[in-house]
Every structure is written in structure tokens, then in C-alpha cells.
Amino acid sequence: MKFSPFVLASALVLVLALASCKPLSSPEVISHDCTVAAAPANFTRIFIGTPAHGGTQSGASAKDPLDGTTAQKFDTILRSIAEGEHPTWGTQRNIAPENLIVCIASGTFQTEGQYDTVFQFGHPTPIHRGFTVEKNWKIHGSGIGHTTLQLASFVPDNFVDSSGSPFVGGRNVVLETRAESASGVEVSDLTIDANHDKLSGAAGLPLDLGGIVLRAKEGGHWIHDVKVIGAAGDAGFKSLAYETFAVQIWGNTLDPHVSSGNLIENITVTQPGRPVFADQPPGGEMDGIVFNNAMGEVRNSVVEGYFIAFGGWNIDHVSIHDNIVRETHYGFNADSFSNNNITLQSNQFIHPHQYGIIMGGGFPGATFANWNVVGNTITLNATNSSGIGIQGEVQNSIFAGNTIQTDSASAHNMSALWSFSRVPEAANINNIFQDNHIDKSLAVDFSRDPNFNTNCRNKNRDLQGNVRQDFPDNSSSACR
Predict the structure, then answer these.
(1) CA quadruple 276, 282, 285, 289: dihedral positive or negative?
(2) How far apart are alpha carbons 136 and 15 in whole angstroms?
């Protein structure tokens, strides 16, 4: 077929237009900590990357970095600092273990991560590998699309499944704190690759591989502009005792108020490791972003494909807002210990396989009080899935302005809301349900909640604004 010059010209314009719309590679993002003329008082700053041609490896600038081109080289630099050797690297001498700024160049840098370091106790053998993070460390890459810190190995370990049968596997974490004093850690502008599929495939073993675990007595942690990929909890799938976390802030005391000022923002947790057991979901028993024994905030972040997106236990004054969750089993889960003053606001939970949000039922005497679950959108498309589940001890909490809907014409037995008590003494009482918008095709089930009428219910409607007969108002005015 022949084309006229007009058609050919039009096609050329279209091609050029499409080419101009192609996404450009993201620019390098350099933290202010790495661009100012000098490090702040009482801080040491080092640059790690590929040695510059003709350089001296002074480590004092991005143009003349220390050599981090192998896991051994990269880890030795940071391990010698964290373990209090007061080393000399480049032009920096007598480097203290605390107050360190690490600026990592563009490229993929391998590490053995935490390896066998035991929290608070160090290495169990005289052969030291990997590295851990100390107090007030600031670890900056050159942007998510430019710097990758990739796990290169794991520690072999023996596990026991839930039936008591032993099995062999391995474990590791890319970035983990050294001791409970390691507060005030910042991680930014890089991709963390737990590298599950390559490591598991090469060894033929189930692996528990985490991304970032900041465990300390006090908080002040800030994780931002980070992507975590390739994490997995294969052993956790066999026994919940080995549950693993892609990103975790862990207060090392039972009082959650001690670990405060924690912020996670603008991060993406995606691409879980491939299953290694039959019926195992991708990533196994792996949680995306978790707080425990701590207070904090998560905002403007994305979790997709992992078993649990957000969660926590023994937390207080935690705010999780303006995030997106896709294709997880649980969008949010808190079901252990007491968890009070929690805000879940303006999040999107898209296609949870089991639950959008589930809370309560820790144990007798635990409390889930003063929650604000407001303005979230939950979109269901899986048979037997639920929007919001309330399973005991949830009290004096507000569920308002949420939209629970489905975009599936074939899935069945889906519920928008259900409430019950896992044990008789764990009552859900004195909660507010107001101005929620619930797809009329989704069930509302309070049939197993004997305290249903302690709830204030006002203006909960279907998506067309009609009263739901299975969720009638019991207040003619706004609940307070």
C-alpha cells in the first residue's frame, strides 16, 4: 500500500510527538548533607563510589570518593567506623562511630548487610563481615534511579516450621542498627535491593531478607525517598515466628513513647521475592512498613505485592496517611498488644486479597482505643475479601468518610464492614460510624457483635446516597 505525503508527514509528526512524551531518566538527587561545603560540627562526612581516574581516594568529595566497588570494600569502610575502630579513610582521620554522613555515588554497590551481627552484642565469630548502622548516621544515595545498595549474601540458619519440622534456610537485612543507642538515623535517595531471587535461586534455599530495620531505644529516624525491592519472608511463611519486614522502625523498649519523632515518607516497597514453597504468596510472610514499640508517621508512600502493607504492634500516636496500597493480602494490620491513638487517613487500599484494614483482638486486657479511620478508599475485587474488620477491644474510635467499593462483577462473598470479638471479654464498644459510603453489593455484618448498639451511627449510605437497611442510623444528628 502506498501512502500520500500528507499521511507520511502526519505519521512522522505523531512519532516525534510520542518520542517527546517518553519519560526522561530521573536526575540525580543529592542531599544537602552531601553538597554543603563542609559537614556540620561534630559530624564526619565520607563519599563512597567508584574511584576517580587519577584520583587519590580522599573520600572528601563526590569527585574523589573512597572505593566501594566490592561488598568487602564497601562494608569494611562502614564496619570499621561503626565498630569503634576510629579508622582513617582518605583524608578523614580518627573517625568516630557516631555522627556520620555517608554519601554514595551513582551505581550499584553490593553489601553483606547486617550479616551475622547480633544486636547489642556484635559478631559471634572473629571473622567480621557486613556492617551495621550507628547513632546519627545519615546514609544518602544519589537518587532512587541512580544508587542501589544490593545484598550480596545471607547467613545460613536453621528454622522450625509451625508443625515443629526443621528446615534449612538463611537470613539477612540490608541496613540495620547496631545497638539500642543508634537513634537519629536517616536513609534517603537510593534503592535498597534485598536481592531475594538471585540469592535464593543460587542457593536453592528459603530466605528471610529484609530491607531497613532501625531498632533503637529512642527514635528520631527519617526514611525518605527510598525504594525497597526484592525482600521476602520465606521462613516466615512456614512459621509466624520468623515474620520479616521490608521497612521497620523498632523501639527497643515496651514504652512506645520513648521512640518518638519517627518519619517515613515518599518511599516505595515493591517487587517481592518469588515464592519458594507451594501456596506461598510472593514475598512470603513479609510486611511492608511497620512500627513497633514506637510512635511515628508514614505518608506519601506506596506498598504493593507484599503480604501486609502497613502494620504495627504496641504502638501509640502513629499516623498513616495519604499512602497507596496495591495487591496485598492485608492493607493494614494491627492485632497484637495494645495499639492506641492511631490515625489511618486518606489512604487508598486497592484490591486487598483478604483485608483492607483489620484491627483488634490482641489479648484480654489489651486496648485499641481512640482510632481515627477517616477518608480512606478501599476497592475490593477478591472473593471473600473484606474492607474493614474489627475483631475485639476496639473502643472510642471513629470510622468516618470512608468509601468501600468493588470494581469486580464476578467476585462474591465480599464484606465492607464486619465486627466481632475474638474472645468474649474483648468488646468493641462506643465507636462512631458516620458518613461512610458503602457499595450496596457489599455486606455489612455486625451479627456477632453484641455491643453493636453502643456505636453511634449517622448517615452511612450506599454509593448512590441511599440508606442501607442492614446499617441503619441510630442518631439523627452528627455523632460526637
Answers:
(1) positive
(2) 51
Measured at the CA of 460, the angle between CA 329 and CA 427, to 5 degrees, comes to 65
Buried b (16+ CB within 10 A) or exposed e, 177-196: bbbbbbbbbbbbbbbbbbbb
Q: Which of 368, 410, 407, 403 is nearest to 388 (CA)?
A: 403
Q: How far is CA 84 from the centre of its chain?
A: 30
- Cα separations in angstroms, 180 against 117, 183, 198, 388: 14, 7, 32, 35
- The secondary structure element, H or E, covering residue 103 is strand 100-104
Residue 184 · residue 220 · CB < 8 Å: yes
**What's the CA gap between 407 and 326, in Å, rounded?**
14
Nearest Cα neighbor of 68 from 84, 57, 53, 54 is: 57
- What digits encode the pLDDT tens for the residues 75-122? 999 999 999 999 999 999 999 999 999 999 999 999 999 999 999 888
pLDDT for res 475: 92
Q: Are strands 155-160 and 232-233 parallel, antiparallel or unpaired?
A: unpaired
The span from the CA of 171 to the CA of 244, in Å, is: 10
**Residue 25: what pLDDT?**
61
Task: Say if residue 2's pLDDT is above 70.
Answer: no
The label of the residue with cell 483489620 reads 358
Res 455 pLDDT > 70: yes
Per-residue pLDDT at 125 exceeds 90: no
pTM of the predicted structure, to 2 decimals: 0.93
Can you tell me the distance from the alpha carbon of 32 to that of 69, in angstroms, rounded to the nearest whole number? 24
Closest CA to 351 of 331, 336, 370: 331
* Residue 34 near residue 101 (C-beta atoms within 8 A): yes
CA 464/CA 360 separation, integer angstroms: 31
Which among 69, 95, 65 has a CA at the least distance from the CA of 82? 95
| CA atoms of 71 and 153, how far apart (whole Å) | 9
pLDDT score recorded for residue 404: 98
What residues are paired with 373 via a beta bridge? 344, 399
